[in-house]
C-alpha cells in the first residue's frame, strides 16, 4: 500500500510515514468515519452496542491510530514539513471528534441501548459514553452547538501552538561557554557540550535548556553568573520576558484565549467554570474538595519546607559565603548541602546507573512481580535509538512497546506514555487485538563510546512511565473504551506509575540494576544508605512546589477572570504556598504544557491525589515483603488483578478497595516522604 498511514495490517510503518501521506490519509479516514457515523445514526439502524461498535468504532479506531502515529512523530521527530502537514490536518480531525462527541442522533442511539443486554465492561463503557456525550455538547442545539464546535477546534489549534512555542523557545537558546566558565560542571556534561559545539563548527561548549544539560549546570557550576544566565533564559522561555528575538515564542496571548474558551465551554454546558467540568469524570467530587485537599497537604508540609529553607540559608552563609542567595543559586546550594550532609553526590551515583543495566533490572522486577517475560522484538521505528519489545505470559503475547530514551533536537521535553493501540476484542474480525504503548523519555546520550548514564531521577522517571505502560498493556479487559487506561479517572491514572517509583528506593531491587560504567561494580551498600538518608531531602519544599502548580491550576480554572492578567494569581498562590519566591521576571506558567497543551487542565492535582493512592498501595508490598527483602509475588498478583488488569472497567475506588480491602489513607504518603510527624511552624 502506497500510503503508510492507511496500512493497519500490523504495526505502524514509522519508517515509511512521510509528511505527504498525512493529508490524503486523513481524507480517506475521515470519509470512512463520516460514512460510518451516517450508517449507525440512520433511523432503522439497531440501537445495539455490538452493532454500533462493528461499524462506527472500527472506523474511528483506524482514524485514531493513524492520527496517533502522526501526533507521535510530531512530538518525537518534529520537522518543518511534518509540522506543516500536522497543523493543516489538525482542525479537520478536531472538527470530526467534536462533531462525533456532540451528535444528538448518536447520543439518542446510545440512550436507547438497553443496559441489561450489556456485559459489565460494556455497561461501564456505556455509562462513560452517555456522560461524555453531555460533556461534549450533545444536548446543545443550534447556534450554541455550532459555537461549542468552534471552541473545540480553536482550543486544539491553540494548544498545539503553545506546545510548538515551548519547544521552539527551548531549542532556540544556546550559549557557547568557555572552559573556565564550566568550572564544577560534571565531565560527561562538558564532553557532550563540547561535542555539540564541534558538530556546529563553533568554539567553546554549547549549553542548552534541555534537561540533561540545564540541570547539571544549575546544580554544579561554581560560577553564579553562568547559572544566572541559564536560569533567566529557562524561566522566561516562551514569554514576554524572553531576551532578544525569543519573544516571538511568547505564549501570553495564547494562555488568555485558552482560558477564555474553557470558561465559555463550561458555561455553555451549564457549569460555572472549567474546574467544575474537569472533575465530572474524576474521583474528586468538586473543585472545593480538591482545593481543600491541596491546602491541607500544604499545611502538613509547610513546617518541613520552612526548615528546608532555613537549613539552606544557614549552609550558604556559613560554607559558601552566600549571605543573600538568588533564585539561580538554590539548586547549587542544595546540591552542596546534600553532598556535605550525606557525603553524597548525584554525580557519583550516576556512574552506577548505566541505561542498559537499569533497563534489565526494571524488566526483571516486572517479570517477577507480574509473571510475564519481556524480550526484544522487531518493528519499523522513527529513529535508530528506538527499541521495540514484547511482553508474554506462558508463551502468549500480552502487549508490546516502543522505548525512545535519548533527548534530541525536534523531540519535545519531558517523558510520557502514549497508546499506539488498545486491547480490544475486535467486533469486525472477532480477533483479540493486543495493546501497544509508546514509552518516551529524554535522557542524556552516552559519550566516548560508553553507555548512557542515568541520574537516579531518570531511573524514577523510567519506572514511572513503565507503570503507565503496564496499566495499558497488562489489562485483561476486552472492551476498548475501558481497557487499560481507557476510562480510568484522570486523578487515578497516576496510581500505577507512581506506584512503580517506590521500587527505585529498595536495596534488593537496586543492587541488581547497577554496574559502574568503568569497573562494572554494583552500587556499594554504603552509597545506597547515603542515598536513602538523602531521600527525603527537601521533601517539604518539593511537596509545596507541586501544590503550588496544582493550586494555581485549579484556581486559574475556577476563580480567575480570563480577561485579566493571570500573573497576580500566580503571585498570590506563591505567597500562600511557596517558601522561596521566584524573581518578578519568572514566567514558568508560559511553558506549563501539562495544563495548556497536555490534558491536565484543572487536573494537575491528580499527581498528588494519586500519590496518596500509590503510596498506600505500595504499603501492601512493604507489609508482605519476604525475609530477603523482595516483594511478594502473591501481593504482585493481587495488585495486577485488582488494579492493572481491571483497567477502567469499574470506578478506581472500587479497584483500590478490591486490592487494599479499605479506603485509601494519607498516612503512607506522609511516612514515605518523611513527614509523618506533625511539625508546627
Quick summary of this structure?
With 681 residues, this protein is α+β, with helices and mostly antiparallel strands.
Question: Would you spell out the secondary-structure blueprint of this structure?
Answer:
Elements: H1 19-41, H2 49-76, H3 80-101, H4 104-112, H5 120-135, H6 142-172, E1 175-177, H7 187-199, E2 205-207, H8 211-220, H9 224-235, H10 252-268, H11 274-279, H12 287-319, H13 330-342, H14 346-350, H15 355-370, E3 373-376, E4 387-393, E5 396-406, E6 416-421, E7 424-425, E8 432-433, E9 436-443, H16 456-473, H17 495-501, H18 507-510, H19 525-533, H20 539-556, H21 567-577, H22 593-597, H23 606-624, H24 633-644, H25 652-660, H26 667-672
Parallel strand pairs: 5-9
Antiparallel strand pairs: 1-2, 3-4, 4-5, 6-9, 7-8
Amino acid at each position: 500500500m502506497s500510503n503508510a498511514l492507511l496500512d493497519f495490517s500490523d504495526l505502524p510503518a514509522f519508517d515509511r510515514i512521510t509528511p505527504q501521506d498525512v493529508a490524503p490519509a486523513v481524507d480517506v479516514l475521515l470519509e470512512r468515519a463520516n460514512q460510518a457515523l451516517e450508517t449507525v445514526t440512520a433511523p432503522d439502524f439497531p440501537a445495539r452496542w455490538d452493532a454500533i461498535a462493528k461499524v462506527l468504532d472500527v472506523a474511528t479506531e483506524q482514524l485514531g491510530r493513524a492520527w496517533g502515529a502522526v501526533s507521535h512523530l510530531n512530538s518525537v521527530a518534529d520537522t518543518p514539513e511534518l509540522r506543516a502537514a500536522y497543523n493543516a490536518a489538525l482542525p479537520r480531525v478536531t472538527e470530526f471528534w467534536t462533531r462525533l462527541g456532540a451528535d444528538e442522533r448518536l447520543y439518542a442511539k446510545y440512550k436507547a441501548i438497553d443496559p441489561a443486554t450489556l456485559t459489565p465492561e460494556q455497561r461501564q463503557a456505556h455509562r462513560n459514553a452517555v456522560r461524555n456525550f453531555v460533556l461534549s455538547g450533545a444536548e446543545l442545539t443550534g447556534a450554541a452547538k455550532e459555537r461549542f464546535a468552534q471552541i473545540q477546534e480553536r482550543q486544539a489549534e491553540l494548544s498545539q501552538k503553545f506546545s510548538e512555542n515551548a519547544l521552539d523557545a527551548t531549542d532556540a537558546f544556546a550559549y557557547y561557554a568557555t572552559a573556565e566558565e564550566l568550572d564544577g560542571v560534571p565531565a560527561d556534561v562538558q564532553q557532550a557540550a563540547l561535542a555539540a559545539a564541534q558538530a556546529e563548527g563553533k568554539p567553546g561548549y554549547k549549553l542548552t535548556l534541555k534537561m540533561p544539560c540545564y540541570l547539571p549546570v544549575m546544580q554544579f557550576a561554581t560560577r553564579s553568573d553562568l547559572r544566572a544566565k541559564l536560569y533567566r533564559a529557562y524561566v522566561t522561555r516562551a514569554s514576554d520576558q524572553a531576551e532578544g528575538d525569543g519573544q516571538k515564542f511568547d505564549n501570553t496571548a495564547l494562555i488568555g484565549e485558552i482560558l477564555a474558551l474553557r470558561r465559555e465551554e463550561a458555561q455553555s454546558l451549564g457549569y460555572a467554570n472549567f474546574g467544575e467540568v474537569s472533575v465530572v469524570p474524576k474521583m474528586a467530587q468538586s473543585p472545593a474538595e480538591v482545593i481543600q485537599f491541596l491546602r491541607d497537604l500544604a499545611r502538613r508540609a509547610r513546617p518541613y519546607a520552612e526548615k528546608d529553607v532555613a537549613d539552606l540559608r544557614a549552609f550558604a552563609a556559613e560554607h559558601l559565603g552566600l549571605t543573600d542567595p538568588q533564585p539561580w543559586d538554590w539548586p547549587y546550594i542544595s546540591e552542596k548541602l546534600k553532598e556535605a550532609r550525606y557525603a553524597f553526590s548525584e554525580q557519583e551515583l550516576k556512574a552506577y546507573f548505566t541505561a542498559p543495566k537499569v533497563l534489565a533490572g526494571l524488566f526483571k522486577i516486572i517479570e517477577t512481580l507480574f509473571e510475564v517475560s519481556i524480550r526484544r522484538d522487531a518493528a519499523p521505528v522513527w529513529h535508530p535509538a528506538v527499541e521495540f519489545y514484547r511482553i508474554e505470559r506462558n508463551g502468549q503475547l500480552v502487549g508490546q512497546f516502543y522505548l525512545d530514551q535519548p533527548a534530541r533536537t525536534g523531540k519535545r521535553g519531558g517523558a510520557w506514555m502514549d497508546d499506539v493501540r488498545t486491547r480490544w476484542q475486535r467486533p469486525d474480525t472477532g480477533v483479540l487485538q493486543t495493546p501497544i504503548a509508546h514509552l518516551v523519555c529524554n535522557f542524556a546520550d552516552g559519550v566516548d563510546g560508553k553507555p548512557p548514564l542515568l541520574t537516579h531521577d531518570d531511573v524514577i522517571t523510567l519506572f514511572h512511565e513503565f507503570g503507565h505502560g503496564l496499566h495499558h498493556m497488562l489489562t485483561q479487559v476486552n472492551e476498548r473504551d475501558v481497557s487499560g487506561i481507557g476510562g480510568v479517572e484522570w486523578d487515578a491514572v497516576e496510581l500505577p506509575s507512581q506506584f512503580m517509583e517506590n521500587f527505585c528506593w529498595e536495596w534488593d531491587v537496586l543492587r541488581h540494576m547497577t554496574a559502574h560504567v568503568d569497573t562494572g561494580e554494583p552500587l556499594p551498600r554504603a552509597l545506597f544508605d547515603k542515598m536513602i538518608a538523602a531521600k527525603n531531602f527537601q521533601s517539604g519544599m518539593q511537596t509545596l512546589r507541586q501544590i503550588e502548580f496544582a493550586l494555581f491550576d485549579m484556581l486559574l480554572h475556577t476563580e480567575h477572570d480570563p480577561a485579566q492578567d493571570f500573573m497576580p494569581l500566580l503571585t498570590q498562590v506563591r505567597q500562600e504556598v511557596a517558601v522561596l519566591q521566584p524573581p518578578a521576571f519568572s514566567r514558568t506558567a508560559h511553558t506549563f504544557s501539562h495544563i495548556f497543551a497536555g490534558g491536565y487542565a484543572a487536573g494537575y492535582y491528580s499527581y498528588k491525589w494519586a500519590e496518596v493512592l500509590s503510596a498506600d498501595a505500595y504499603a501492601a508490598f512493604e507489609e508482605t515483603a519476604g525475609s530477603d527483602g523482595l516483594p511478594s509475588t502473591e501481593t504482585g498478583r493481587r495488585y495486577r488483578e485488582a488494579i492493572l488488569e481491571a483497567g477502567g472497567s469499574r470506578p478506581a475506588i472500587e479497584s483500590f478497595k478490591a486490592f487494599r480491602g479499605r479506603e485509601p489513607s494519607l498516612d503512607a504518603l506522609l511516612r514515605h516522604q518523611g513527614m509523618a510527624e506533625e511539625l508546627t511552624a
